[in-house]
Design goal:
Elements (H helix, E strand, L loop, with lengths): L2 H9 L6 H9 L5 H4 L8 H9 L3 H13 L2 E5 L7 H4 L7 E5 L8 E6 L5 H16 L3 E4 L5 H9 L6 E4 L13 H10 L1 E4 L11 H12 L2 E5 L7 H10 L3 E4 L10 H8 L3 E2 L3 H8 L15 H10 L4 E2 H8 L3 H13 L3 E4 L3 E4 L1
Parallel strand pairs: 3-4, 3-7, 4-5, 5-6, 7-8, 8-9
Antiparallel strand pairs: 1-2, 2-6, 10-12, 11-12
Helix pairs in contact: 7-8, 10-11, 14-16
Length: 350
Amino acid sequence: MEELAASIAFSRLKSLSRIKKRQILDGLPSIAPLFEGRVRLQDDAVKQEISAFRRWDDIDAELTALANMGAEVITIKDSTYPVGLRAIPDPPLVLYRKGSFPMEGDTIAIVGSRRATDEGMNLSEKIADTLSALGVTVVSGLARGIDAYAHKGALRGKGKTIAVLGCGLNICYPWENRRLFDRIGEEGAIVSEYGLGEKPLPHHFPERNRIIAGLSKGVLVIEASEKSGSLITARLGNEYGKAVMAIPGSIFNEGYKGTNALIKQGARLVDNIEDIIAECFPGLKIIKEQAIDMDSREGYIYSIIGPHRIHVDDVIEKSNMPAKEVMAVLTMLEMKEAIREVAGGFYIRK
């Protein structure tokens, strides 16, 4: 019996928890003998479920489909299985991966609200961009908001990114992230513990958060309400001995209640990139950003925009410049990637 098929089959047994499966496997050099009746088990229910397993054709078909889509399966017995993930109490026994990007090295989880503010998404993208330029791999969950912008920023640098799904590799959820999903599969890695075709069920997302935390040296939370799923990732990161960090926000903004609570509970308050590097990657040196070349008009409009989003009408009013001239300057600043337009005619610094 092939070891890979046996590993997938064992991961799908319903009568055992992940922790119990891990305990059984830790005492075995290989998994196939379990299904060949060559391992003595004490639990009759487990023995019965193993002997009754018949879905080998389904597994063969899935392995063929994975190969056709350029994906692979990594088992907990493989040398390529991530060391940090193997160290958690209930690691996935198998990982489905699309993309060849390595899952080891300097890694950080960046997570947060799906309903993030423009400022939060901009911050997520910029932090991920800066860290990826230093070679740090950004791990997140491909969700709307903070996650998506963390992946986008990370793709610009050599550190790239890993997206951990709450569904099978052949399903993009949410659908609007399809282009990002495809690009990560080509330049980074998409990872899941769920087989092909498994839907993004609600309970899958808290489960996948342990993988995000396990793959990372630290967890950074940007914008999280009191009930945000990203707080689960932070809690698990703390349990696994990872660095947990949070960016503070207004006490009057419900979207920051979760992050502010994390800081009160002992998470490191982060207000610059240096804090993240000192906490997780003390050997890295920050590359100073080159100043954007601007003329006097561009510099003036850039100063008006500031770090928070501002509507184009307010920019025109504050500038005391003709509307046509302001629009031309905004276009030049966008071309220089100094600012970006967000929904509703607002602008924000990149």
